[in-house]
Amino acid sequence: MATPVKVYGPPMSTAVSRVLACLLEKDVNFQLIPVDMSKGEHKKPDYLKIQPFGQVPSFQDESISLFESRAICRYVSEKYANQGNKRLYGTNPLEKASIEQWLEAEGQSFNPPSSALVFQLAFAPRMKLKQDLGVIKQSEEKLAKVLDVYEQRLGESRFLAGDEFTLADLSHLPNTQYLVSVTEKGEMFTKRKNVGRWWSEISGRDSWKKVVALQKAPPPKSA
Amino acid sequence: MAVLKVHGSPFSTAAMRVVAVLYEKGLEFEFVPIDMKAGEHKSEAFLALNPFGQVPAFEDGDLKLFESRAITQYIAHEYASKGTQLICPDSKKMAIMSVWMEVEAHQYDPHAGKLCFELFFKAKFGMTTDPAAVEDLEGKLGKVLDVYEARLSQSKYLGGDCFGLADLHHLPTLHYLLGTSAKKLFDSRPHVSAWVVDITARPAWAKVIAMQKS
Predict the structure, then answer these.
(1) Least CB-packed of A100, B24, B131, B171 within 10 Å?
(2) pLDDT tens, residue by residue, A86-137
(3) B143-152, pLDDT tens digit by residue?
(4) What is the ipTM of this complex?
(5) What are the Cα distances from residue A129, in Å, to A31, A123, B126?
């Protein structure tokens, strides 16, 4: 059996959970290696060698070392194309083009405002940091405009890139999970009919339920 | 062969990114100007091509795409045998290039894009530059470029041994920033500086700039 791939970082990190979702969809065995961010482990020289920006996740597979969650997902989906969910990254160039389009839309239009809201509403309170009401308001307005576009698209198409669940949908799971389950902004998704239907479908997948369970598991005790 | 069309403005960094790939590949295409001053990018006709109301939009026969980095990847794969090779056939090398493509999109561009707006576009729109914002953005971009300096001391190009999409995606914002006070950020880092000189000197890039003058 193949050696498990390694993912460095805590499952509560949105970017780490994006990679975990992909690995689970593709039935790829992985080893989750803790990085103690509260102690600044991610900014120490040993970690910076594998991720020079000092962020999680980082990834290793045999002899290759990668970072940036969406690059890791693309690599995993290509390398393990013939196992697990075979439609995750498309089976022909036209499908792939559509997936890339919506994956970029996630990264460029959905992620900035939703990430800002996740930080302000879910993480800042835990970290005892002051919330920035201006950022919250601006981010909510931007996110609303993006979700209006999604509402229209998801009325024409079952999933973002087409009829099948793909990486483009998967990439939205981490931020949306926090917004829906931990903040009062979940209504932005559930009150829009098509977006609500889509969220229900994609978050109900076995792979995502496993990621959420990993996020809820108690963190490993330090040695 | 179907007609390739790019809808956008020759001054838009995202549209320039797509046009750069088309010139590198030596592909014939039609550039359809979108009058952004008149709000044409928010018209129903354009929203049918890009529901986010942003340029560029792209057509290859019946295929319609938006998001410049999805378009460049499509072109680079679909027309792999034409002109400059912009992706790697080897999957491990492509994975490394993919990492640095994400770095451009998520680490570099958020700061570089905003700096372009402060230092170049605001003047065009009759707005005033915010010096505090500029200082903040230059600091953040500087930290990213420190990582680039280390990377480029070990690798000729960001994505690997050869020029590819990971490098090309930087050209539009680089072009604008080099004409502003932010140029110092690139000049002060020797490997970054050499890389910038190399990639901005490419003949295909000169054609993209020439479009702005016609």
Answers:
(1) B131
(2) 999 999 999 999 999 999 999 999 999 999 999 999 999 989 999 999 999 9
(3) 999 999 999 9
(4) 0.96
(5) 32, 8, 37
Q: B17-28 pLDDT, tens per residue?
A: 999 999 999 999
* Alpha-carbon gap, residue A97 to A111, rounded angstroms: 20
Query: Among B51, B70, B99, whose Cβ lies nearest the Cβ of A97?
Result: B70
Neighbours of B69 (CB within 10 A): 23
What strand order describes the sheet that includes A58-61?
Answer: A30-33, A5-8, A58-61, A64-67
Q: Which of B59, B85, B111 is the C-terminal boundary of a domain? A: B85
Nearest CA in chain B to A80: B91
Instruction: Flag whether residue B93 sits within 8 Å of chain A, measured between CB atoms.
Output: no
B contacts of A93 (beta carbons < 8 Å):
74, 77-78
Q: Do A101 and B67 touch (CB under 8 A)?
A: yes
Residue B65's domain comprises: 4-85
Other beta carbons less than 10 A from residue B136's beta carbon: 15
Residue with tokens 């420190």: B146
- Confirm if B21 and B76 have CB atoms less than 8 A apart: yes
* Cα B207 to Cα B177: distance, rounded to the nearest angstrom: 19
Which H or E run includes B115? helix B109-116
Rounded to two decimals, what is the model's pTM? 0.96
Query: Are B72 and B114 in the same domain?
Result: no
CA distance B190 to chain A (A): 19
Q: Comparing C-alpha atoms, which of A186, A15, A159, A188 is closest to residue A101? A: A159
A4, amino acid identity: P
Classify residue A195 as exposed, middle or buried by CB count within 10 Å of its CB (0-12, 13-18, 19+): buried
Tokens found for residue B203: 């003949």
Q: Can the peptide bond before residue A34 be classed as cis, meaning omega within 30 degrees of 0?
A: no
